[in-house]
Amino acid sequence: MSLGTGVPVTFPAHDPAGWRQLPKSYTPLDPARVSALMAKEWERYAKTTPGSADHAARSVKTLPLGVTSSFQYWDPYPMGVQSARGAYVTDCDGRQVLDLSMGFGAMLVGHLNPTVVAKVKDFLDDIGTLFVTPSPISTDVAERFKARFGVDMLRFTNSGTESTMYAVRAARAYTGRKQIIKIEGGYHGGYDGLSVSVKPGIDEIGPADDPIPQVPFDVEAGVVHTVAYNDLGQMERKLAAHAKDVACVVMEPVIENLGIVLPDAGYVAGVRKLCDDHNVLLIFDEVKTGLTAGAHGAAARLGVKPDLITLAKSIGGGLPLAAFGGTEEVMQVVVDNRMAHFGTYNGNPLCMAAALAVDEVATEQALAAAEQVNDNAMEAMDTIIREYELPAHTVGFGVKGAVTWSPTPIRNYRDYKLVTDFHVAELG
Length: 428
Fold this sequence. Notes:
CATH superfamily of the domain at 149-339: Type I PLP-dependent aspartate aminotransferase-like (Major domain)
Shape: globular
Largest sheet: 7 strands, mixed
Helix content: 25-40%
CATH topology of the domain at 149-339: Aspartate Aminotransferase, domain 2
CATH architecture of the domain at 149-339: 3-Layer(aba) Sandwich
Number of helices: 13
Radius of gyration: 22 Å
Strand content: 5-15%
Strand order of the largest sheet: 5-11-10-9-8-6-7
Structural class: alpha/beta
Distance between the termini: 24 Å
């Protein structure tokens, strides 16, 4: 493509497991026009959501920001939801709204999926809600996940944050080292050790070729090194300098908290080789990918096997289920008590019921059909982008897709911050 200079510009090819279509040409948008349209949309929002406004005024008196998780808040107030079914939510004003987020993949099989509801009801009626003992039910789910995601052993948790925390602890126990390497801009939940350089200001993180970790004041992270995504040279330099003290590299194989950022062709395999060369464990955070990437997750789709993997969201049918697992050799740290893992609600029957239902629903055929729907949507949006020469492109992985408001690919966090038109993205 040309960036308006008439000189063709090329970018590294993305991994063929993902989707990305860049515009051949584009016309810059008028910022004043975008602002005017944005003002009209906010005016329309205020007129059509008085119930959400009333709810926000009530909830803010008890819940900080009026929400149960800070990402749910936006100014002037977020839409409040009273119920959901299938692909739609019903807001506090009785409007049915198409849910294009689906809990970032947690609702992969849909709100109130009948198979999930029936299985959970069966357990409520006849099985139980909590045993706090071993159970054939949790063993059944574990065996299914083992087969699906290619791990030797796994343990259940209740959130993605717990899973990434325990995966890092397992890596530390196995290697006898403490330090971590993570991707700049990567989000891995609320665990202190990974709450570093999540979405920092560009002026806080040093030069692009040698990032400085940004640690919030309220976080006690230990020693964490950050590297740019899609930069094997940077990863190699960091490992060469610090591998003797590094337990693990933690990364989303496909970044999904910056829109969708695809790996370059060969990048993930290159990280795997570097970790092997330096005797450092590789952890894939698949909390947001998981089944949304395909029937066996992103690792299988990309053809790269990590030492440890974390799962959540898509595996639980909307119930709070997560897991971490990996090779038998690494997971032996739990067996011999080099790492303690506890949790009253781990593997509770209701979450296991939902997992069994998701396993039944999320077949290869069903996920392939869902991915085709996503591909069709991406193609339709590409048609609009080309017709109107918009400075945007589509990107997708599995059943997830996004429009990124940049005519050039986003390959790492600094690209995301520096070239994305967030003003237009908010309007979109």
